[in-house]
Amino acid sequence: KKFRLAVIPGDGIGKEVVREGLRVLDFFEQNSGGKYSFESDFFPWGCEYYLEHGKMMDEDGVDKLRDYDAIYFGAVGFPGVPDHVSLWGLRIAICQGLDQWANIRPVEFLPGVPRRLNHPEADKLNWVLIRENSEGEYSGVGGRNFTGRGPGKEVAVQSSLFTEHGCERIIRYAFDLARTRKRKKVTSVTKSNAQQFGMVLWDEVFEHVSKEYPDVETDQWLVDAMAAQFVLRPEELEVVVASNLFADILSDLGSALSGSLGIAASANLNPERRTPSMFESVHGSAPDIAGKGIANPIGTIGSAALMLDHLGLQEEAEQLNQAIRETTRQGYLTRDLGGTHNTEEITDAIIDNLGKI
Ligand code: NAI
Ligand code: MG
């Protein structure tokens, strides 16, 4: 089988880490005995493209991606282009345009990685954050300059949009996933004391859906208390489902607690498989370290494992995750994890470990 991949390296370290992920995919292809291959088409979209063409991607960009088996994405955003322009012009445009409504963000506590989380059982933690990826706080509803009463008087409105359909499908996704896991627990996060419309709807849908899953344990938290809970009672968490903004924030917290933003992988899924899903690390383009060859490629390589799994190559996905764990266990660490290895050396070690499996 030939898998057709749309590759969007994007900006900053996005380009550096996607290159590494593709080296890993090459390794799999070469060792597949002709069983499968990857054919990559590159799309040069991002901030440089914007500065040249005045747009982050082609007008029909989303349509150009429609027929691929998957999209492999680096990161977007660079000084010189406002962040809201670059994010909305590319990443959000693709996620929403292709209805990738479920963003899956596993948080793994890898061996050999210095922990930011001081917990005796940190090695056993294995969280997965489920982020609503199509609406909520990132609905784009609102506008600037509502009063127009002159300088210093501007009013901006930014609305959150919650639909019963949108809440139900992401919450159901979380329950279905929880069922496949050891602990069988879903924690829902809102702020429904202060956000009295959309988030109360979310809570009601959560309670209603949970009745269909009597075998799954549930828990409901307000986001501020949840942030503390991540640090204080991490053993209470397994599958955590939250809105677009809250899960975005909590996943950076989760990945930092597990070591670094650089190791967090993610999948933007269209679970019905009507459109291609997109695989990318959680981190951004990290302009502060771009071009130095020191970015941690594990988040993006781990995202390739999620992509392999999605493409039906479960065994390969498991092998890749195993090779990543073996690599950190052996002490191959980039600077964000207190090590001295560079980007390529981490990939070399992962490929080396894959060869031994
Ligand atoms: P960031 O994730 O790019 O960087 C935050 C910090 O973590 C920086 O100190 C960076 O050096 C470090 N870091 C991130 N990834 C790393 C890696 N793989 N290895 C080692 N260190 C790593 O977030 P920041 O600085 O807030 O945003 C930079 C740009 O990225 C902005 O333009 C922002 O809009 C964009 N962004 C894009 C995202 C995407 O494409 N999905 C997600 C988040 C931010
Ligand atoms: Mg983020």
UniProtKB/TrEMBL annotation:
<keyword id="KW-0560">Oxidoreductase</keyword>
<keyword id="KW-0479">Metal-binding</keyword>
<feature type="domain" description="Isopropylmalate dehydrogenase-like">
    <location>
        <begin position="4"/>
        <end position="350"/>
    </location>
</feature>
<dbReference type="GO" id="GO:0000287">
    <property type="term" value="F:magnesium ion binding"/>
</dbReference>
<dbReference type="GO" id="GO:0051287">
    <property type="term" value="F:NAD binding"/>
</dbReference>
<keyword id="KW-0520">NAD</keyword>
<dbReference type="InterPro" id="IPR011829">
    <property type="entry name" value="TTC_DH"/>
</dbReference>
<dbReference type="InterPro" id="IPR050501">
    <property type="entry name" value="ICDH/IPMDH"/>
</dbReference>
<keyword id="KW-0464">Manganese</keyword>
<dbReference type="InterPro" id="IPR024084">
    <property type="entry name" value="IsoPropMal-DH-like_dom"/>
</dbReference>
<dbReference type="Pfam" id="PF00180">
    <property type="entry name" value="Iso_dh"/>
</dbReference>
<dbReference type="InterPro" id="IPR019818">
    <property type="entry name" value="IsoCit/isopropylmalate_DH_CS"/>
</dbReference>
<protein>
    <recommendedName>
        <fullName>D-malate dehydrogenase (decarboxylating)</fullName>
        <ecNumber>1.1.1.83</ecNumber>
    </recommendedName>
</protein>
<comment type="similarity">
    <text>Belongs to the isocitrate and isopropylmalate dehydrogenases family.</text>
</comment>
<dbReference type="GO" id="GO:0046553">
    <property type="term" value="F:D-malate dehydrogenase (decarboxylating) (NAD+) activity"/>
</dbReference>
